[in-house]
C-alpha cells in the first residue's frame, strides 16, 4: 500500500509539472493568436490557422501512430530495465517517422498551389502552406523525442519541446513587431513558426542525448512498431480530420476571415483541450505498466482523480465564457465578436468532454487499437456529415457544432469501453 501511495504521489507530481508547462504553452499560444489577430486581422488568423491545421494533419500521418506505440514500448522496456530494446524502439520510430515527414513535405512544396486551390479551395493559403510544410519532419522528430522523455519521466521537459517553446519564441517576436509597428508579409507568421520549431529541435536533440546516455547500445527489436502503429495512425487521423475538414470547408465556403473567427474561438477552447491532452500524455506510461500488471483498480483511481482535477481547472474559464463571451472575443479585436457564440459552444463542449477525459489513452495502452479505430471512424463520419449540413448556412457557428458532436460521441463511447474492460471508474 505504501509503495502504491508513493507511486501515486509521483504521478501527481508529474501532473503538476506537466500542467505547469502546458499552462505556459496555453498562455503563449493564446498570446501568439492575439498578437497575430492584432497584426493581421481575422483574415490573417484564418490563413495561418488553415495552413497550420493542414500541416498538423500531415504530421499525424507522418507519425504513423508511432508516438503512442513508442511510449508504450519504452515504458515497458524500461520497467524491465531493458534499455537496449528501448533505444532500438526509439531509433526505429525516429527513422520511419522523419522519413515519412520528409516525403510529405516534398509533395506539398512541389504541389502547394494545386493543394491550396484544388483540394482546400483557398488560394490565399498557398504560400503559407508551402512554408509551414517544412516543419512537418521537424515536428515529427520533436514529438517522438518528447515521447521518449516521457518514458524516462522527464515530464516537464518533454512537454516543453512539444509546442510551448515554439509559441513562446513566436509570441516574443510578434510582440516586438506589434510594438515597433514593423510591416510584415502575410507569410511572416509561417516563417516565424518554422524558426521556432528549428530551435525546439535543437533543444530536443540535446535533451534526448542526455536522457539516453546511460542506456545500453541498441539491440535487436523483437516487436513490430509499424503494425500496431497503423491502427493508431488511422485512429489519430480520424481524430484530427474533423477539425481539419471543418476549417478548410469554412475557408472555402466563407473565406479566410470567417475561418479566422472560428480559429480564435477554437484557440480559446483548445486551452481546455490542451490540459486534457497533457493529462493523457503524462498518464499513458502509467496506464501501460498498470494494465500489464493487471492493476485495473489503480487505473480507475487515477482516472477519477484526473477527471476531478480537470473539471475544477476548467470551471473558471467555463464561467467566464457563460458570463462575458463578447468581452472575451473583443480582446482579439472588434471584428471577432461575431464568433462569440461559436466560441461558447466549443468551450462548453470541451468542459463536458473532460468528464470522460483520458479514456482513449487507456484503450490504446490496453492494446485496444481496433476498437479505437472503430470509434474514431464513426466520430469522423459524424463530423463530416455535420460539417456538410451546418457550415454552408451557418459559417463559424456551424463549424463549432460540427466539431462538438463527434467529440462528445467519442469521449462517451470510449469511457463505456473502458468500463467494459473492468476498470472501476465511478
Question: How would you characterize this protein structure?
Answer:
By secondary structure, the protein is mainly alpha-helical. The protein contains 16 helices and no strands. It is globular. The model is unreliable at 1-9 (pLDDT under 50).
Brief sketch in words of this structure:
This protein has about 425 residues and is mainly alpha-helical. It is about 85% helix and about 0% strand.
List the helices and strands and how they pair.
Blueprint (H helix, E strand, L loop, with lengths): L1 H62 L2 H14 L3 H37 L6 H7 L3 H16 L3 H6 L3 H17 L7 H24 L14 H29 L1 H37 L3 H28 L1 H6 L9 H14 L5 H7 L3 H26 L1 H25 L6
**Low-confidence spans: pLDDT under 50, at least 5 residues?**
1-9
Helix and strand element order: HHHHHHHHHHHHHHHH
Structural class of the secondary structure composition?
A: mainly alpha
Q: Total strand count, please?
A: 0
Total helices: the number is: 16
Largest sheet: none
Envelope shape: globular
Helical content (DSSP H or I, runs of 4+): over 70%
Euclidean distance between termini CA atoms: 21 Å
Note the beta-strand portion: under 5%
Q: What is the residue-mean pLDDT, rounded to a whole number?
A: 85
The radius of gyration over CA amounts to 21 Å
